[in-house]
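Example record used in the benchmark description.
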Amino acid sequence: MKQLLLVVSGLAFLIACNSGKPQTNLTFNKEIAPLIHKHCTPCHRPGEAGPFSLITYKDVRKKAKTIARVVEAGVMPPWPADPEYSHFVGEKILTDTEKEMIVTWFNAGCPEGNASDLKPAPIYPEGSQLGKPDVVIRMEEPFTIPGDNRDRFMVFKIPYELEKDTFLRMVEYVPGNRKLSHHVNGHIIQYDDKQKKDVFVGPRYVDREVAGTLDSCYRFMKLLNDDETYPLLTPSVFNFLPGVLPQQYPDGIGGYRIKKKGAILMRDLHYGPTPVSETDQPHINLFFSAKPPERPFMETQLGTLGISEIVPPLLIPPDTIMKFVTKALIYHDISLVTINPHMHLLGKSFLAYAITPQSDTIRLVRIPKWDFRWQYFYTYPTMLKIPAGSTIVAEGVFDNTRNNPNNPFSPPREITGLGGSMRTTDEMFQLILTFLPYFPGDEHIRLDNILPGQTGLE
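Model output (structure tokens):
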């Protein structure tokens, strides 16, 4: 670690000394604060997931050495997807010039500058990021996060009963403890009156590492219908990562039909480690729609628990680095909206692309350095047309050696992903796709910076 820090510091010094243009007059108030407020402050502010605040000059000056190092090393801001391969909404990326500015400012002694140059820090809304919800569904009791300094991966359900079947425009997750809530993927389970008499029966949560499989979770939490069949699942209605705003879509795109009886299913709620016990009591905001969804999203997944097999089967011997591939044929034209690569701790790199019938390659996503802590649902700036007859391919490389600092076992053990286990110490290899049947002109509908009521047309 000391050698790494020395190398990074050396690189920072060389960049500062060998820059093609002198930047010795950089100040926090004029040049650095806008970069910090845009890329760092959304997480690094009181009550959020960042371990320290980065709002004021005093905040940043105190951590300037750390900031320069992690920026130069490409560790922060966290954005695993390679911007030279494909682009997405809300990219958290510093340009080489911006990185150089931060390092140069640090090497110059972190000058503050003139107070008149400092623009006000962003004002972040409390609670909902989307406005006033129509209904709020709350977890009935706070969940206690033990102070044992370990990551915790939970499955939660929040049952509800509305006045009637209805339509939803958006669903938003609001954590009660933003400091420890790292990510969550949320779904809605829908029940028919004749199939489930009491949606409130059963435990509200289970530790994913204990339950093991999704089927075990369903049975333990009494999520199945009364006849032991699986209820209707509306997948991926919300996703949460620190500093990531809820995605909004143009009118007519997305939305959901839901029955009056159901349950919010948080299948993968990740809490970060804490030395002292804390609590969390999240809630879900529902935003109704007066009309049924015109083009509701569809979802499928390749790989583990998905529509395509993994080749070779996902079994990783100790002391090996292995590549696995999964692919699926697309039978109809689709408009791809979001993409979510998923692996566990042995993940090393991830690549996804589509091959058209004309043998052209459509770039989907490339993650050169897999980071289990930052698994985004990546949204394309405009919907991506994948023509019928194309094959979507995902390639995942897994590192089960001692050189992998995230390897949960020392010495390495054989790791399997054959049983669909959700345990972090087992493996998964998935590519989750959110899409629509293609309509002419979809590729011109913008999905970035969309507000309710806008069309998104270029």
